[in-house]
Amino acid sequence: MNHHSLLNQALDLAAIRPAREKVARLVAMALEEDLGRGDVTTAATVPWATMGEAVLAARRPLVLSGLFVFREVYAQVDPAVEVIDVAADGERLAAGAVAARVRGRAASLLQGERVALNFVQRMSGTATLARAYVDALPADSTTRIADTRKTTPGLRAFERYAVRCGGAHNHREDLSSAVLIKDNHVAAAGGVTIAIRRARAHAPHTSRIECEVDTMAQLEEALDAGADIVMLDNFDDATLKSAVALVAGRAIVEVSGGVTLERIPRIAAAGVDVISAGALTHSAAAVDLGLDWS
After folding, report:
1. Do residues 80 and 108 touch, judged by C-beta distance below 8 A?
2. Is 20 a catalytic residue?
3. Is 105 a catalytic residue?
4. Do 18 and 128 fall within a single domain?
5. Identified catalytic residue from 34, 78, 228, 233
6. Which domain holds residue 29?
7. 1: pLDDT strictly greater than 50
8. How far apart are CA 154 and CA 225, in angstroms?
């Protein structure tokens, strides 16, 4: 990625960073959970006047995400702690690379360490997995990789941001963000056609209507009913090709269910517009970053 692209990415990430008030609230909850009535070990072993310095370092290759949360942890633990960014969110780091430097009272550095690392490790894990999915697309592909609402309760804003750090896109933020008719909506409404018609009558004229389909018959019904976006759920490769041919540009095609890294090139090659994967958030493992004393 060239410098110009990195600059544009940095600007985009700054624009979608969660609101300061939300970040502060989530960090405060995490610190309350971890500190309890105080850090008895640090209080017993480290004099208050002792100063310290540490580096946040990658212990394996990863895509960085969550530095602003890392800084917020230390701002709440001790506003005198200085956090100096060395890398930037969205940047690929090699094993051993330094992401940030932290300076201040040693006790404060120790008290905030676990919470600060928990956030940046989990967010960087999501960003790293998202980047792997994006990198699996064919070089000339215009297909988007997107997340889903399968997020950790309470941490959706952080995880959506991390997905963007990995170069992928976000699906709807919450239930109020878009009309997405799922299989259970279809069942409750009494069918694909009636669900789409009711949605069309209710939704603003500016809103697209997306409908999930499980079969070719449902797909044809959704297209006839005027769906703007069709979500092909758990279609195998052969059926997927037939489905894209049937759509023939009449709707945006999203694929979800059964999405793996190995399948992404084949799914994209079929001509779909969006591949959504819950795994980006519900199955991303925390990556190994450490706070190493220096």
Report:
1. yes
2. no
3. no
4. yes
5. 233
6. 3-135+284-293
7. no
8. 36
